[in-house]
Structures are given as structure tokens and as C-alpha cells.
Amino acid sequence: MKTVMYGAGNIGRGFIGALLSQTGYEVVFVDVNDEVVNTINRDKTYPQEIVGEHGKTVWIQNIRAVDGKDTSSVSNEIASADLLATSVGVSVLEKIVPVICEGLTKRWDQDPDNVLDLLICENLMDADKFLRERIYKTLPARHKETMSQSLGLVETSIGRMVPVMTDDMKKGDPLRICVEEYDFLPVDRNAFKGPIPDYDKIVPYSPFSFYLERKLYIHNMAHAFTAFLGKIKGYTYIDESINDIYIRKLVEGAMIESAMMISKKYQVEFSELKAHIDDLLLRFQNSDLHDTVERVGREPLRKLKPDDRLVGALRGCEHAGILPVYLSFAVACALYNVTKDSASELLAETSQISTQEPCGKYIMGFYEQLKSAPKDFPSILKMTDTLYSEIRGPVV
Ligand SMILES: NC(=O)C1=CN([C@@H]2O[C@H](COP(=O)(O)OP(=O)(O)OC[C@H]3O[C@@H](n4cnc5c(N)ncnc54)[C@H](O)[C@@H]3O)[C@@H](O)[C@H]2O)C=CC1
Ligand SMILES: O=P(O)(O)OC[C@H]1O[C@](O)(CO)[C@@H](O)[C@@H]1O
């Protein structure tokens, strides 16, 4: 049984390739990084270092690598694979479509019923649609029909955090990869055409949008919010930021709003989501990951778009009748990280939120407070409490 793992980077080596090797596959990594490819083929193993409380080193076995520039060899591997996975980054995904199509063509010229599932391990909403359109366009006419019955485009939710590896962390081994302990991979149950890999860490689920929204609106939203608050306070690392008691309270408040929304939308017990929140807050505290507020809070403008983690969560709450008070503050923090003036224009243009809307008013109120006293988080907390009680009215 063979998996082709496209991308031997942080997630390819640190998560998916390792997981599939442990599931029992031979893992053939494809990468354009010569050092990584040559070292995998020389050592036939690499150390995966699990950092944190239960730290240990796991040696990943049953692996080899193919040079991504040798497209003929890559397509031969795809033609004879039992499973395919990608984790190359969204901007590269499009570029590898021609090679994937070459592999599928070789495969289906032999046997059009030879199904192949492709696990898409990228941070991309509607990743299946994205690949389906491009693969369909690129495949030769004789295989366009085959695709619908023989190719499973499987969305996944990558929850494991793998930091950028510094030279210090590599300790002289270009393959060494530091990862957190969390290693579950939720996958879209309905998308498989062949058997679902049988391993307890691979969690098939339907409707899969539940996991995608949980990841984006709870994990990614809270992570970004922690980073923005940390930047304002002058912290370098995510763990420093989340250990600040005021930041933790603010972030947890926003996570609970998102969780109430998701619980209502997907009819999932709130307690299940609360356990996920508690676990994430612990995971953000992992100082051995050395994850920076700079990386997690990068490109705040992109993170302010209507369907991204902040405004997406806020709009989802409004839709579900949940008050997005902490989420409004999260949006205000992102705005504050982008601009110290003309915030209302930016909010309208980038996030499509008008200052006439209730949430637009809350956001601008928080933004003005941040401008006048950026590090006064106790006052912000007081503002959230007051806002809640004003909007909610008396409680019996
Ligand atoms: N690092 C993390 O904590 C998480 C990352 N992700 C997502 O996983 C995906 C991969 O991210 P990382 O592993 O962090 O990035 P990375 O940059 O470490 O890995 C990407 C790998 O793809 C290789 N590559 C580039 N072009 C290629 C080509 N044409 N053919 C073959 N290989 C090629 C690169 O050499 C690199 O080794 C991204 O979509 C990211 O958003 C998702 C969740 C967590
Ligand atoms: O890559 P983006 O969109 O800047 O988002 C960063 C987020 O993505 C991850 O790298 C993977 O989900 C998280 O660790 C982080 O919250």
C-alpha cells in the first residue's frame, strides 16, 4: 500500500506523511527541495519531535522521496498509488495540477475504474471545488467523465500546529520536525471513492463543513485574536500572550461566541465545543512550539475579509442570534493592527461592515478605546460586560 505525499514541508513531514506511515502505507514524498528529497532517500527515516508536556521523538519509517521537478517519475508514482495527499500551500496547489493529471491519465489509461482518493491538506475553504474545477479543465477529454466516478477529492481539517523550523530547532538535521502532540485528522467522509484509511487518528465526519467552520471560527479566529492582542501588549510568542490573564479572558469570550453559533447551527452539544476550547487554550500555551504572534497574526487585512475567521464568525453569530461582543473586539484589534486612522472606511471596504450596523458601532467603540488606551485590557473587559448587559437586558 503506497501513499504519494505531495509536499514534504512542515505539515507533509510533521503531520500527514507521518500519520499515513503509521497507518501502514509506504509514504513517497514529492518535493522540490533537493536537500529534503536527498536526505529522505539517504536516511529512509526522520525524527518527528513531539514538543510539550509529553515530549518524545518518533522516527518515521517506510518512506522515500521523489524530486518534484522530475514530473515523469512523479506521475508514474501517482498512477500506481493507493492514496494521494497534498500539503504544498495554496499558491502551489494550482501549479501541481498538470502533474496530478498526467498521473491520473496514466492510471486511467490502464484502468478507468482504478479509483484514487486525494486528501487535500491545505488551509483552503472549498478546496475540493478548487481542485475539481482545475483538474477537470486539465484532464484529456477521454477522462473527464472518469473523474466523477474514480477520483475522490477529500477535504481535511489540519488542526495540528507545526511551527517554522529554525536552525536551532533542526539541530543539524534538515528533516527534523517539531510538532505539538495533537494529531487528529478529521476528513470528509462523503468524499471518499475508495476505502477510508483505517486508523483511529483519521476521523471521518459528515457534514464536513462542521469541522471546517470549527477550525476557522474557533481555532484560527482565537489564534489570530491572541496574536493581535499579544502584538499590542508587546509579546513575541503566542504562549506569552495567552498566559496574560486579560488576553485569555477576551479570547475565551470570543471562542465561546463562535462555539454557541456552531453548536446551534450543527446541533452539536455546546459542552463538546467547550472541551475543544479548553484543549486549544492549553495548546496555545505550549512554549516549546516557539510560535510567534508575528506568524499567527500575519496579514491582518486578509484576516478582516468578510468570509475569513473574524468577520465570518461575527456574521455567523448574528445570523444565529448570538451577540458577537467579544468578536467585535477581535475585529477592532485586527483593524487597530492595520491602521490607526480611517478605520471606518477600512471596515466598510474590507469587511463590508457599516458603522450604522449594531456590530459596526460596537467595533468602532472598541477601536476608539484601543486608540486612547491600547494596553488597558481591564477597561475593555468592563466594556464587554456593559455591552452584554445593555443589549441583553435584565436576566431573571
Ligand atoms: N504549519 C501549520 O501549522 C499548518 C499549515 N497548514 C497548511 O498546510 C499547507 C502546507 O503548509 P506547511 O507545511 O506549513 O508549508 P511548508 O512550506 O513547510 O511546506 C510546503 C512544501 O511544499 C514544497 N513545494 C513547493 N512547491 C512544490 C512543488 N511544485 N512540488 C512539490 N513540492 C513543492 C516546499 O518545498 C515545502 O517543502 C498550507 O496550505 C498551510 O496553510 C494547515 C494547518 C497548519
Ligand atoms: O495561514 P494564515 O491564514 O495566516 O493563518 C494562520 C493560521 O493557520 C495555521 O498556521 C494553521 O491552521 C494556524 O496555526 C494559524 O492560526
UniProtKB/TrEMBL annotation:
SUPFAM superfamilies: 6-phosphogluconate dehydrogenase C-terminal domain-like, NAD(P)-binding Rossmann-fold domains. GO terms for molecular function: mannitol-1-phosphate 5-dehydrogenase activity. It is an enzyme of class 1 (oxidoreductase). Gene3D superfamilies: N-(1-d-carboxylethyl)-l-norvaline Dehydrogenase, domain 2, NAD(P)-binding Rossmann-like Domain. The keyword Oxidoreductase applies. Its EC number is 1.1.1.17. Keywords: NAD, Oxidoreductase. Signal peptide: none annotated. It catalyses: D-mannitol 1-phosphate + NAD(+) = beta-D-fructose 6-phosphate + NADH + H(+). Residues 211-347 form the Mannitol dehydrogenase C-terminal domain. Pfam families: Mannitol_dh (PF01232), Mannitol_dh_C (PF08125). One of its GO terms (biological process) is mannitol catabolic process. Residues 1-198 form the Mannitol dehydrogenase N-terminal domain. Coiled coil: none annotated. GO terms for cellular component: cytosol. This is Mannitol-1-phosphate 5-dehydrogenase.
